[in-house]
Amino acid sequence: MVSASSNQPREFFGQFLINMGHLTEDQLEKAFSTQAATRIFLGKILVMTGLVPEATVRGTLSHKFREMILDAFHWEEGQFVFEAADTAPEVAGLEVSVDLLDIHREGEFRETAWQAIRAVFPSGAVRLAVDERKLPERKPGSMDERIVSLIKEGLTIDGIALALHATDFFLYQRLYALYRLDAVKISDEPTVDETSIVVEDEEDTGVIGSETSSDEVLQAAQLFLDAGNIRDGEALARRAHEMAPSPRTVEFVKAAQEKLLVFLRKELAEPAKVPTLQVAPAHLKTLQLSAPERYLLSRIDGRRDVAAIVHVSPLQELDALKYFAGFVDAGLVTLTPR
């Protein structure tokens, strides 16, 4: 395998670089700005600017390719297309190749590993407890140090994964290793369900989601979109798809989400707007927030604008912008043009 791409943000090249400690979020955002201006591949930019050595870029790309394919091993549905050709397509960036047989062997190992891991950590929604007396020696700034710090902050496993920009297996295998040392376990404290501030009320209007058929909901969605109510129109489109999935609803949702993305970009990020917290950080810890919400709120520093925060986050752009819209609606955040 010589090239691979993904639409999952946590599988983007930049996310692996952050997770492995090769880049900071600020450095990645600057590299993205250079990429937008030059149209040069990110890996080449990092090497040219001296931010990351070429050997590290190649190694990280190889790791990214492996993790993307291994993640697909868990898919219950998917499509596979093979097109025979005498030569591989020319790669414009740095040349990297990965042996597929090695990936297959790793996939077989991980199937067994995941069974053991899930027996201990059945869900990413759980919080953990740490016994620092049983931890191996760790260096300041090391991955174990960062994991322990996030556990002590009370984050769920999902929240830790977002904060570290980590893939699931990377984090879970380390947590499992610490569990085997009796250093980490699921917290005995009562579980507090995480809720999201971004809640779309489907009953309040008497319209959203209340129709008797998917076709009627789609018709209502189209009316909302035509009237310029993009947010409710997209919510209706998703509701129709949930009621009766079909190729038609898939295309409708896709079109509605494309419109919503354009709308939210203009509302929240164009021109650049800097978010400011309207509540004390200590108060934020008392709120019931989802892991993605906690991650995004933790990135607000009064300096970075919304687009910069979203660009380097391990979240889909549309989802992240929806969360920011929810923060503004709830009065947690205000936006100031730069």
Which secondary structure elements does this structure contain, and how are they paired or packed?
Elements lengths: L12 H7 L5 H14 L3 H7 L5 H19 L27 H21 L7 E3 L12 H10 L4 H8 L3 H13 L3 E3 L27 H13 L3 H14 L3 H22 L4 E5 L3 H4 L6 H8 L7 H6 L5 H13 L3 E5 L1
Antiparallel strand pairs: 1-2, 3-4
Structure characterization notes:
InterPro entries: PatA-like_N, T2SS_E_N_sf. With 338 residues, this protein is mostly helical. Mean pLDDT is 89; it is low at 201-205. 53% of the residues lie in helices and 5% in strands. The two termini are 43 Å apart. It has four domains: 9-98, no CATH class; 119-186, no CATH class; 214-268, no CATH class; 273-337.
Give the ordered list of helices and strands. HHHHHEHHHEHHHEHHHHE
Give, in spatial order, the strands making up the sheet with the most strands: 1-2
Strand portion:
under 5%
Distance from first to last alpha carbon:
43 Å
For the report, how would you describe the main beta sheet? 2 strands, antiparallel
List its salient traits.
single chain, 338 residues, two-stranded antiparallel sheet, 15 helices
